[in-house]
Specification:
heterodimer, A: mainly beta, seven-stranded mixed beta sheet, four-stranded antiparallel beta sheet, B: mainly beta, 11 strands, 0% helix, 53% strand
């Protein structure tokens, strides 16, 4: 059983489109995250939710909107996609102060 | 502004020898440090961590050393195995500020048989 699963694994889309990436964890963790790995391979936090409440919100364009319907799910919706949004997006989960468990990533390519 | 830096983008080592990966940080508030390992097309997986109250933590073949005065940590892998070939990320956090990890840029390790 995959602990943190995210879909889709690959996403190719045109500029201006709206897309969503889904994430689910079956570890019973209270906290979930979205990280972005840019072209220079740095992993940077975007958002963190604890028990469906937003607790970390880095400087991310408001075209990015996380949604947590329950503590096992944290989806990422992106409006009006831009070329610069092309990256690998990783979902992760943890207990509040524990180590992070990552999903396998979603490679987003905006054409 | 990179608060966590891994200055060696790559490292090549012979099987059986020691791999030493280095990481420097600038934020003196960081009090928890971790190493993650990443294979291609997979997410990072936790390897080992160390709290700022310690200067060494060991887990099997992996040892992390922390030098707070130098704001430097290192990961030693002994002996290195071909399956250790991966990208290794150093990460740091301020525990009281939530579990927000700041990552370095990674070091690609190649272990040659």
């Amino acid at each position: 059983d995959t602990a943190v699963s995210q879909t889709p694994k690959y996403l190719v889309t045109q500029m201006g489109n709206d897309k969503s990436i889904k994430c689910e964890q079956n570890l019973g963790h209270d906290t979930m995250y979205w990280y972005k790995q840019d072209s220079k391979k740095f992993l940077k936090i975007m958002f963190s939710y604890n028990n469906k409440e937003l607790i970390i919100n880095e400087t991310v364009p408001n075209r990015f909107s996380p949604k947590s319907p329950d503590k096992a799910h944290l989806n990422l919706h992106i409006n009006s996609l831009e070329l610069g949004d092309s990256a690998v997006y990783f979902c992760a989960s943890s207990q509040l102060s524990g180590k992070l468990f990552f999903g396998s990533g979603t490679q987003l390519s905006v054409l | 502004d990179q608060q966590v830096k891994q200055n060696s983008p790559s490292l090549s080592v012979q099987e059986g020898r020691i791999s030493i990966l280095n990481c420097d940080y600038t934020n003196s508030m960081f009090d928890y440090f971790l190493w993650y390992k990443k294979y291609p097309a997979e997410g990072p997986t936790f390897l080992i961590s160390i709290s700022s109250i310690k200067d060494k933590n060991e887990d099997g073949r992996f040892t992390v050393f922390l030098n707070k005065s130098a704001k430097h940590l290192s990961l030693h892998i002994v002996p290195s195995q071909p399956g250790d070939s991966a990208v290794y990320f150093c990460a740091a956090s301020v525990k009281a500020a939530g579990n927000k990890l700041t990552f370095g840029g990674g070091t690609r390790v190649l272990v040659k048989p």
